[in-house]
Amino acid sequence: MGKYILKRTLQMLFTIAVVSVLIFSVVRITPTDPITSITRGKPASEETIAALKKEYNLDQSMPVQYINWVSDMFHGDFGKSYQYRESVASIIAVRMMTTLQLMLQSAVLIVFIAIPFGMLSASKMNSLLDQTATVTSLVLVSSPSFFTGILLMLLFTMVWPVFPTFGTGTDFISNIRYLALPSIALAAVHMALIMRITRSNMVEQLSANYIQTATAKGLSRPEVVYKHALKNAAIPILTVTSLELSGLLGGSVMVEKVFSLNGIGSLLADSINKSDYPVIQSLTLLMVIIFLLCNLIVDILYAVLDPRIRLK
Questions:
Q1: Residue 310 has pLDDT above 60, yes or no
Q2: Integer Cα distance of 292 and 238 in angstroms
Q3: Domain residue extents for the chain
Q4: pLDDT tens digit sequence for 55-75
Q5: Phi-psi bin for 93: left (phi > 0), alpha (psi -120 to 50), beta?
Q6: Which residues, other chains included, contact 199 with Cβ-Cβ below 8 Å and sequence gap of 6+?
Q7: Which has the closest alpha carbon to 115: 246, 255, 225?
């Protein structure tokens, strides 16, 4: 196990290195001039331009800029924002809590609603509950998160004004209410997909011969479903769930814009519009790292859930 974890960690680090080069290169080939972004389109003298290039290390070659960026990141310095003229790390730190709580509430909905409903739908296949869940998941999986968010805003603004439709609270507890609708909008499409995957795998397991044997031995239905069928269906469910959870950060971009949330998703959207290279690079790389870490954790959990799997 230790050898496998080391091997996968080294592969992950190599992937991060390659992706960091790609991110740095793609950001730099955009048509917007960094100086224009820094000065916000205002005319500047040659002396001012030279001073800005030196301040933001733009007077150096691309390879040197990349090396400096990577080197500074190891020391916790993600550069200086063109837009805010502040440290990127401090800007992200201020906005991170809103996005983390949004992702946490969405993850709770996904894990504690999608998977149980998928299992319940499979155990009561072809019932009214199963048909309702299937139709609902089909509608939700076809609706982008921003569209679901707009519908929720209209519903809870004009019809049932129970939850706030924009902004955030003053602390974690008050944020739960403010982030209720955004978390539902962010989680909806992921919940639908995971519920369908869970139902499909559970139906397959419940129709297997070993389930019929367990039932014939007199095991109760809950024991058959939760102890035997779920255990064998867990790996594909875990895989899809982990991928969907790791994608919440990327999906938060549009949801935060719709609900006017001051998180890192809206920060990324604003930075792309204003060509704020340091912020774009840092946030994009952060998303990649989170995605890769989720995959590493899932690969390790495979062996825990199914001892027949041998990690090499």
A1: no
A2: 15
A3: 94-275+293-305
A4: 777 778 888 888 888 888 888
A5: alpha
A6: 118, 119, 121, 122, 130, 133, 134
A7: 225
Write out pLDDT tens, residues 89-134.
888 888 888 888 888 999 998 888 888 888 888 888 888 888 888 8
Please give the DSSP secondary-structure letter assigned to residue 220. -
Domain range 94-275+293-305, CATH architecture: Orthogonal Bundle (1.10)
Residue with the two structure tokens 């704020």: 276
**Alpha carbon of residue 122 to chain centroid:** 27
Let me know if 195 is exposed, middle or buried by CB neighbors in 10 A (0-12, 13-18, 19+).
Answer: buried
Q: How far apart, in whole angstroms, are the C-alpha atoms of residue 38 and residue 84?
A: 9
**CA–CA separation, 283 and 268 (whole Å):** 7
Exposed, middle or buried: residue 269 (CB in 10 Å: 0-12, 13-18, 19+)? middle
Q: How far apart are CA 219 and CA 301, in angstroms?
A: 28
Torsions phi, psi of 280, nearest 5?
-60, -45
**Overall pTM > 0.70:** yes
Largest CA distance in the chain: 86
- Residue 290's SS3 state is helix
Both tokens assigned to 40:
């916000």
Which of 33-37, 245-249, 304-308 has the largest mean confidence?
245-249
Supply the pLDDT for residue 115: 87
Residue 22 contacts by C-beta under 8 Å, 6 or more apart in sequence?
A: none
Residue 305 banded pLDDT, cuts 50, 70, 90: low
